[in-house]
Structure formats: structure tokens, C-alpha cells
Amino acid sequence: MLDRKLRRDLRQLATQAIAIGLVMASGIAMYTMALYALNSLRTSQANYYQRYRFADIFCNAVRIPENVVPRIQAIPGVSAVDQRVVYAAMLDMPTMNEPVAARLISWPDLGRPRLNDLFLADGRWIDPERSDELLASHSFVKAHQLKLDDRLSFIINGRQRQLRIVGIVYSPEYIVQIQPGSLLPDYKRYGVFWMNQRHLSAAVDMQGAVNDVTLTLEHTANSAAVIEAVDDLLAPYGGTGAFGREHHMSHRFLEDEIKQLTIMAWVSPTIFLLVAAFLLNVMLGRVVALQREQIAVLKACGFYDWQIGAHYLKLAMLIAVGGAILGLGFGYLLGQNTTKMYADVYRFPVQHGSLTGPIVWGSLLISSGAAVFGTWRSISAVVALPPAEAMRPAAPTYFAASWIERIGLSWLLPQVVRMLFRQIQRQPIKSLSTVFGMSMALAIMILGSFSLDAIRYLIWFQFDYAQRQDVTVVFNQIAEQAVVLDLQNLSGVTEVQSFRAIPMNVRFAQASRKISVMALGDEASLFRLANIKEDIVSVPPEGLVLSDKLAKILGARLGDRVSLTALEGQRRSDEIEVVRIITEYGGLNAYASPATLARWSHLPETCSGAHLRIDSAATSEVYRALKEMPHIASVNLKGAAMKSFEESFAANILTMRLFNLIFTVIIAFGVVYNHARISFAEQSRDLATLRVIGFTNWEVTAILLGELAILTVASLGPGCLIGWGLAKMFVWGLDTEMYRIPLVIEPKTYWFAMVVVVVAAFFSGLLMLKKIWALDLVSVLKARE
Amino acid sequence: MNAPPVFSTRQVTKDYHMGDLVVQALKGVDIQLYPGEFVVLLGPSGSGKSTLLNILGGLDLPTSGQVFYRDQELTTWNQRQLTQFRREHVGFIFQFYNLVPSLTAYENVALVTEMVTRSMTPLEALKMVGLEPRRDHFPAQLSGGEQQRVAIARAIAKRPAILLCDEPTGALDVATGILVLEAIEQVNRELGTTTVVITHNAIIAGMADRVIKMSDGKIAEIEPNAVRLRPQEMRW
Ligand SMILES: Nc1ncnc2c1ncn2[C@@H]1O[C@H](COP(=O)(O)OP(=O)(O)OP(=O)(O)O)[C@@H](O)[C@H]1O
Ligand SMILES: [Mg+2]
Fold first, then answer.
1. Residue B161 structural domain
2. Does B68 reside within a domain?
3. How far apart are CA B212 and CA B235, in angstroms?
4. Helices (DSSP H) in chain B: which residue ranges?
5. Interchain CB distance below 8 Å, A397 and B140
6. pLDDT tens by residue, A316-345
7. Does the residue B25 lie in any domain?
8. What is the domain count for chain B?
9. What is the CATH number of the domain that holds B134?
10. pLDDT tens-digit profile of A752-761?
11. β-strand pairing of A535-537 with A561-566
């Protein structure tokens, strides 16, 4: 019998229940989507790494004789070793003005590599007898719309070589391909290729030697110990320091994405479910208030308290479970979509996961949890209600002057406005729930859109503010200052700033890191050092400048003396004082003046590359000239990677924004509708009275919707604040060793979010119009409430 | 009664459709109400009193027939015009007071005076019903009779042409009912407002200039009183 009542109640509350169910469903959908994508990504990653034998430790060196490799194999804890020649070449793409950076990796003459195997997506493996065959990474092929048998023109060691694509491959090492020195992938300007070992060695004078070693560890091995042993072993051969997976670019990138997804899996659903809980609280509070007498009668008839409590809990549960099921379905679709997007962005065979038990049960559990949380107050009131008392009508509702009147502004307010304020103030929980819900809707919208602002700011900061070069070239060997003169003399080059980066090991107390220490002079006019407060920072003539992240990892403070060991040349160590710590967006960096750096490292004052500023009319000319200069290993266009990333990011964020928009609208709509329905039910008698004594439909509408308008406006401030707070949390959660994201939210992001919320609220209010206008004046007056 | 009537109806009928069933609440009613007149409407439950009152007040439209307010035909007006009419010319008083709970006595009256230009001030209206000292109390802090008097103040503050009261004492005890009736009577006397009071209490009929009795949707009898009794003079 009670169940029949439940069904009738539910039918009466249908629209409200649907609105709340949708908010619930949105939360569960986000949760499902994130966990599903997370599962897919994790399993795919693990399977891929295992199947294609992704290495655990990576190191490169200048030249390692082949007979040294067995000694690496002999290090305790090493399970497999693979050696290769890796060479940075330039690629001349007829479709592009600027030179394209290429990484050539040797492919064994016989069989397959022991580690970092490739997945052949199309074509065939290389014929070891032929010297002009090439395997190309899928991402590059796709970015340039190449096909099998296309010929590419490389500049290897100063000589032009035509190579033919025979196979298109994926590599576990290059799931994300980031050019060294760049922060983000750019599949058009950076490609990875594999070519026959024998022919590559011959082309780059590496016969009988390799310059890159990767290895896997036994399960029990101590990674740090192995790295140290490898470093010791390779030091004489110009080893630049071994590093583990955790510092491997592609791996790191993927891990950061996973981290981001994990945050997503918790933050957004929490918000949605909280809002849903608040809505349920308000709705059930109203239902229970209306059904006081019924509850008393039922109790008087002999129903147990818990039966009645369970009855109302069931109502909430039905909404929660309904929402969860809808959310699971929608989240599953979203998850598949996201996974597909990942398969596109991350170049590896992404496997689709499935709706695992934990996702399904987790969804049901958290949505029910939210329902219980939201209805606890009302249900305990039901359980505690003594039947005799409930038979009496509820105590009359007392009103009081609202604060706005108490501060002496009452003469300003017409009566209807007083009604509004008192109505709002009389039910603080209901009003606050609505303000909270709307704020959250706004916050979600801001959180979902701000990352584009942040990326755009970052691009501006790095490439317009701090760094003013157009192009950065990296030499394939350390060059004398004379080379810089050559660059200066190129027509079209207006300004040159050489730089020197020396791989070094920095150590302080127990902590150490291998990084590149950059020499930066006073005259630095192109590549400038700037902290996140937008101050240009100079490098003092003496001492070391550390980025704050590096300082933190090392535990070093201003005035501490850190130990620096050059990973080049004589490998001399020195103790240097930290004279400045700067807060940067990107990674672990250290800087010193050129003279000082040369003195510490006991290396001549040479340069490893140069930043150029180019006359915009002469760019193609300069590019052509650069392609022909023999000692240039790579050309890095300022911000090109960032900009292409921004484009693809912007496209992705547009889809994300659309979802966010939908979710925001669902919340705002649901919250306002819920509030409006309840207010309408509570006040319909008053509103009808006003109509009878001569108020017009519009005036009465204004009273009901005015309350909503006030609450909506009241939620804008907190909403922006919460959105900012969430963005800050998000930025903080993604603050990794590699980078930090600036907390930049443009005014127009706030405005857009506010407009979305206000419009959603407005339309939700419009839905009430019909009800207000259809008020039955006569019947409302007949009965006492 | 030579002055032209304020209200007159011609063959007014009202049908309510409830599925297939048609309830004829009014079956052709002709009445005239004159300026300053105090009319009591009597009749058994379901005889159509409230229906008639609502039609006179522009809350409802008849199924057929005509209603005239002075020389204008109410029955041709649209909702907006009816609202305007109620706003300016009609005061309603109901059995359950229907005050706005979130506004004080004063504010409930001010609600109306803000809408109309030639109204009295809320205080004047409250004074007429003797509730000036309670001006800042909310309805929940007033007794039923006091609430009803606030409702009267609210109804008369705009100096309406007609005051329509549907069982104004229905929810009150005798003594309080007399207080309320006194207030209505005083308004009728002092402002000359045409007043219609529905009641089940035949004794109240003694107060009236005319008593109109309804039964089964029709006017059964119209009975003028030679002498109007003051409410205190009536014996309950
Ligand atoms: N909205 C409605 N729908 C259907 N029938 C109605 C409606 N309003 C009134 N009626 C019917 O019309 C008839 C007259 O109703 P009305 O309310 O005018 O009676 P009344 O004389 O005021 O009675 P009471 O003294 O009980 O208030 C009754 O039979 C009633 O059932
Ligand atoms: Mg009636």
C-alpha cells in the first residue's frame, strides 16, 4: 500500500524528480567517463609497454664502443639491454618552409630489437640489404598525410639523403613525441624514424659503436643503484646520465594525463552529487512538511517509525538509482568517446575497457550515498515525529524583517520586494541550497573553460614576453663562437643570441637531479629569464640560479652550496652557491653566466645553439639557408609546438566545453526549477490572493521569479569565487616536476559562465509561467491551506 | 432607490463541467445593486452564492447572460481588463482572511495602496478597523478576528466601489464576528461603499438594507428591511 503511495508521490513530483535525477546522472556520467577512460588508458598502457618491451632505464652518450654493452648487461639487476644509434637529423618537407626536426633511430639488421619494439601498422619491415628504407612513426605520417613508398629528403651529417617509407609504426617510447627542448608535441615539425643500423652507423660515422642504451630491470632490482652503475660505466664515453621511466618524456606526459583524469574522476562528480543531495534535501523537506498529517495518521495506524522513514528514503533512492543508471549509460558513451580521443592524441593502440564492477557498483554506491546524505535531515524528522503532535497543524510560520530592512533601507522597498526578501530569509536552508547549487553550476562552467585561458596565457608568457626569438637552432656538436658569426651574417637574421647548455648532475644533501645548466649572459635580449610574476630576471655574474621546482626537489635554499658535476668532458665537480631562485612555469632548470659556467665545468666557452630573430619578410630564405648549414642538428620554431598544441587543445576543449555547458545547464536548470516549484507550491495561495485583489499576472510572476532572480544574482559572486578556487585546486593538483599551469581566468570566461547560468535559470523560470498564469483563483480561496 | 444601479445582471448562468456531468451553479440570475446599499446574500450550501459573488467581482465569467458595472458590460472584458477592474473598484473579504503571511498588517494594506492612486493611507485604513496599534504585527501574531479586520482594511483602503464579503465571519466566534461585522458596517456607512455579505447566519440579515435569498442557482426572494440593526443590537 505504501508503495502505491510512493508511486503516486513520485508521479506528482515527476518533473522535480527528473531534474534532480539529471543532476545525479551528470555526476555519475562524469565519474563513469573518467574511470572508464582511466581504465582504458591504464590497461592499454600496461599491455603496450609489456608487449613491446618498453625499457625501464634510458641513457645516451657520445660514443659507446659495442664491446662495452656486455658490461652493462653484467650489472646486477639488469635483465635486458638494447643498444642503438640515435641521431638528430633535419628533414626537408616540400610542403613546409621551415626545416623539420627528425630523430633517426637504428633498427637491427637482423630480427627485432630486444627492447622498445615497434608495432607495424602498415607496410613491412626494412630490408637490411637496402640502404634507403625507412620506418616512419604513424603520427608524422598522419600529420603530413604521407603514404607508403613516399620519399623523404633528410639532411644527415650535412649530406642530403633520400629515404623511402616502407613501414608505418607505433612505438611505446614515442606515444607522445616531444622534440627535446620543446614542452609539447608537434607532430608536423617533429618526426621519429627508424633506419637500418648498418646504414645509419655508416652515415653518421658510428661504425662499431652506439650512442644510446636502454635496459630493463629485474623485478627485485634497485633502480637507483643500476642507474649509478650505468653512469659510472658510461662516463668515459660521454654518458649524459641514465634516467628511469619517471623522467621519460612520453611516459611522463601520459602519466600527467592519467593524473588529470583521476582528479576529474573525483572533483566533478563530487560537485554534482553534492548539488543533487542539496536538491533532494529541499524537495523531501517540502514533501514531508506537506505530508505531516499523513505521516501522523500512518503512525497512528501502527506503522513503525522505520517503515515510514524507509518509505521516504525509498523515494530518494529511486531518484538516485534512476540517475545512476542513466549516468552509467551516458558516461559509458562519453568514456568511449574520450578513449577514442586519446587513441587519436596518444599514438598507441588504445584498447577500450568495459564497465567494470567497481564502476557500476561505485556509481550506485555514491549516488545512493548522496541520496542518504541529502535526505537524512528530513527522514530523521519523519522518524522522530510524534503522531499526536503531527495531527495538530504545523506551527504558524513566523516572519521577521529582513536584514536589508533592518539596515534602514526599508523605505526604499515596495511591499512585494519585502515579501521576496522575507520569503528568502525565512527558509535559509532552501535559499542557501539554491545559491549553492547555482554557484556550483557556475563554478563547473568556469573550471571547464579556464584551461584554454591558461594555455593562451602560457603561450603569451613564454613566447611573446619571456622569449623573443623567432627560431632556436641547436648545433650537432659544440661549436665555437665563430659559428654564431656565420649565423649573424645570414641575410634576414637580425639578431643572434648564442646559448650553451651543459648536462650536469646537481646534488644537494641526499637529493640529486640530472639537468641541463643553461648559460645566459647579461646581454640576453632574445631568450630572457622571467618569473611567473612577469619580472625579467637577470643572471648574476657569479653563482647559480635555480628554478623553484628544482630548488624544492633538492631542498636547497638561497645561500646553500650545491654540488655540480658536468656530464661532459672532464666531468669535474664544483660546489656552487645558489644566488637566486626563480619561479617558472616549466620544469627543472638552472642558469649561470657563460663565464662562470665555463669555469665550473672546465669546458671552453663554446655554444650548443643559438636563438635568432628573423626579418619576417625573409623567413623562407633563412630557413633554406639553415637547412644547408652542416652543423645544425635541429631548428625549433618559437612557439610552433605550443601553437599547434593550442589548436588541437582548443578543438578538444570545445567538445569539453559543450559537455560542460550541458552539465552546467542541467544543474542550473534543475536547481532553479526545484526551487521555483517548491516556492510556487508554498505561495500559490498568496499569489492567488494577490491576483484577486488586483495584481496582474505579470506582477505576480515578478514576485515568484523575483525570488529566483535574487538568488541567481546572489550566486554569481560565490560561483565565480568557487570556480576560481576549483581552478586553483586543479592547477595545484597538476603541479608536476615538468610544469605548472598558470591560474589565469579571463574576464570573458567568467562572463560567459555567468551568462550561461543566468540564461538557464531564466528559461527554467519561464517554465513556471504557465503554472502561474493558470492559477485557479477561485479554488485557492475556498480552502484553508 | 432611484439612483442607477452600480451592478446589474441579466439572466446570468454558470455551468461547471465535470466530465460528462454539468453542474448548473447559476440558472439565470437578475439582480441590481444600488450605491451605498448593504446587501446580505443568504441561501443553503451549494445554492450558488459564491459563484455569483465571484462573477460580480470579475474573478469569473458567466456561461451566459450579462453583467453590468455602471454602464459598462463586464462580460465583454478580457482578463487584463478584469484585473484592472478588481484593482480599482472591488474589495474582497474571504472566510480565511488570505493575508500575505510574510507582510505585516501595515504592509498588507500598503500592498494595495501602492497600486491605486486615490487610496487612503494604510494607517487611515487600519484606524477604521481599530487596528492601528497592531500595525507592525505579522498575520501569525494576530487573532483570526484581527486578521479579518486587517483584510477589511486592505479591501477598503482603495475606496472601492463595491465590497464583496464571502462568509467573513465563517471562521470566527460570535463576539469576534460582531467586531468584524461592525467594521464592515462602519465602512459601508462612512464611505458609502456598496457592500455584499454572504452568510449562513440569518440573524446577520437584520443589518442589511435588503436581504437576497438564493436557492438552487436562482434568486428565491428579495426582502427589504425597514430598519437596519446595528450589529450590537442583534441577538444571536
Ligand atoms: N469549480 C467548480 N467546479 C465544479 N463545480 C463547482 C465549482 N465551483 C462550484 N461548483 C458547484 O456549483 C454549485 C454552487 O457553488 P457555490 O460555491 O456557488 O455555492 P455556495 O452557495 O457558495 O455554497 P456554500 O454556502 O457552501 O459556500 C455547487 O453545486 C458547487 O458544487
Ligand atoms: Mg460559498
1. 35-62+78-233
2. no
3. 20
4. 49-56, 79-89, 105-113, 122-128, 144-156, 174-191
5. yes
6. 898 899 999 999 999 888 888 888 877 777
7. no
8. 1
9. 3.40.50.300
10. 999 999 998 8
11. unpaired
